[in-house]
Prior knowledge:
Number of strands: 0
Mean pLDDT: 81
Helix content: over 70%
Radius of gyration: 16 Å
Structural class: mainly alpha
Strand content: under 5%
Order of helices and strands: HH
Number of domains: 1
Largest sheet: none
Low-confidence stretches: none
Amino acid sequence: MLSWALTFLVVAIIAAVLGFGVIAGTAASIAQVLFFVFLVLFVVSLFVGRRGSSVT
């Protein structure tokens, strides 16, 4: 998931350099959403992992 966010970030940077404003904005928005989804899933997996290992 993080690789998709980085891919869209690179696409946004390239599109911005080439002057495609709408494409750059869209790609940057997608990258931002994917990054936050990745971040939430990461935090949830940390809590679930801790809780699961202490219950034995």
